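Handout, page 2. Input:
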Amino acid sequence: MGVIVVFDFVITIENIVITGCFSEGLDLKVASQKLVGAKYSWKRFPGLSFKLASLATFLLFRTGKFVCTGIKTEVKGKEAIAKLLALLKTEGIVSGDCVFEYGVKNLVASVNIGGASVSLEQITNEFDVIYEPEKFPAVIHKLDDSQATFLVFLTGKLICSGVANEEELKETVKKFYDQLKEKNAIQQQNLTIN
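Output:
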């Protein structure tokens, strides 16, 4: 007698995108000279790119706005922003009174569906998707009534982006997972235990 493996999924946050603003504008030319490793070419792009050690990567703009990527939790993002601000103050790029505000803009997560593969053919028949297997090996699906977009791979791995917090991420993945089950797009792998 075999044991039926129930489908389940594991969500792993791979990257968080945080946007925010310092209370002062930035002289990007000065910042590019004082921040070691900064990349700035105003003719090609209006922002400065700067990797803060192994913490995070920032895009900085003259208005004081910034984008922070390369982190996996909001707490780590806030810590990285605080360290960047301290460095900007130390280097004299902003005053000692400068502060920041921020918010999570986007989570990017991988989702592994355990004990199952996904029928890309069934998804293309049942959902409104983009699928060009000659160019990219995943189905792209924008979830209705949501900002979420999924990349769906045959292996049962999904990539989800476009949500701003963990609770919304969990609800969105569950909703899409239930839709995949309902449309018979998830296929159990032959796993039996004797």
